Amino acid sequence: MSFEINHIKYIQAIVENDFNITAAAHKIHISQPALSKSINLIESEYHVHIFTRDKNY
User: Fold this and answer.
1) Distance spanning both ends of the chain, measured CA to CA
2) What is the pTM assigned to this prediction?
3) CA–CA distance, 19 with 32 (Å, rounded to integer)
4) What pLDDT is stored for residue 54 in this prediction?
């Protein structure tokens, strides 16, 4: 998997929507599960954590 411009767009949309993945997905016209999966795949492929997850928030 090579780094794609869509990866940057996905990350940017999440940041611009105050880290609300549902709102970001809506803005970029993909489903929330697809966006979450894409972020997880990016993190897995590059062995990085892009976002801190807080399930209690």
Assistant:
1) 32
2) 0.82
3) 12
4) 78
